[in-house]
Amino acid sequence: MNYAISLADIQAAARRIKGYVHRTPIMTCQTLDALAGRHLVFKPENLQKVGAFKARGAFNAVLSIKETSPETLTRGVITHSSGNHAQALALAARDSGCPANIIMPSNAPSVKKAAVRGYGATVHECEPTLEAREATADKVEKATGGVFIHPYNNPLIMAGQGTVALEMLEQAEEAGTPLDAVLIPVGGGGLLSGCTVAVKSLRPGVKVFAAEPKGADDTYTSLKSGEWVPSVKPDTVADGLLTSTGDLTFPIIRDKIDDIFVVDEEEIIRATKLVWERMKLVVEPSAAVTLAVALFNADFKRAAEGCKTVGIVFTGGNVDFERAVALFKTLEVPQ
């Protein structure tokens, strides 16, 4: 089967975005190793530009268009997003000298709208529905002639996100702790599909496991049922993982990952709090879903038996601090 991206696309993305995004480090934590019963190697993309891995895909998309069609880029780029992709595309556009038009729902936090505007983008507010987002994006695209860049279901975005795995594999080997498996969260699937292609192309013996909240388990349901199932009224503290996979990301995930595991809300909050306390890293709950699986999911522990070293991706650290503290306090209340 022909997939949307190949290893060559990811390697090209790595060359293209070098110098534009951070090569985030890898980190370890003996306390979390002891709790997990294996060695964990963390890739903290919360230390990435805009505080999330999304910068990789956004810069790859914008810079690729600049290489192939600079005239098109003068008309700008467009997307709809209320999260990290909005900020990432706005920054990539600013650094490439082109306009950015970002469609955001009216109920998106004002701090996120301010951040997007701070990068020089124009924010177009719409009703908080997918239909309204798409209609507004179509209207802006027709008015400006700009290029629409989907948050995850886009080959350039997927290839850019796959550079996370390229770096993590290389860094772990340089540190003398080659990976036996990786754990990656899944929402729309841009990160998971890109990293899966990288890992399975370079190190086919390394297992790829996906992590998902029970409150937004459409990918888990799809893979276990054998049919794609969309996300319907997802409800989870991991608000970066609410979207369904796309027709470009899902085939790679379906065919190439080794397994997928889910965790509940308390497990996600507990894992997030552990990272803050033990690693001194500010990560958002969506990022900690991977660690929650490694620590609390019995099925994962059986599937990963024999995997001495597991790479774990922390996707981002854009946190509402008051909300995070409130979530942590729920762990102190007897159930």
Automatic annotation (TrEMBL):
The keyword Lyase appears for this protein: yes
EC number(s) given by UniProt: 5.1.1.18
Gene Ontology MF annotations: ATP binding; D-serine ammonia-lyase activity; L-serine ammonia-lyase activity; magnesium ion binding; pyridoxal phosphate binding; serine racemase activity; threonine racemase activity
Pfam families assigned: PALP (PF00291)
Reaction catalyzed: D-serine = pyruvate + NH4(+); L-serine = D-serine
Function according to Swiss-Prot or TrEMBL: Catalyzes the synthesis of D-serine from L-serine. D-serine is a key coagonist with glutamate at NMDA receptors. Has dehydratase activity towards both L-serine and D-serine.
PANTHER family registered for this protein in UniProt: SERINE / THREONINE RACEMASE FAMILY MEMBER (PTHR43050), SERINE RACEMASE (PTHR43050:SF1)
The name this protein goes by in its record: Serine racemase
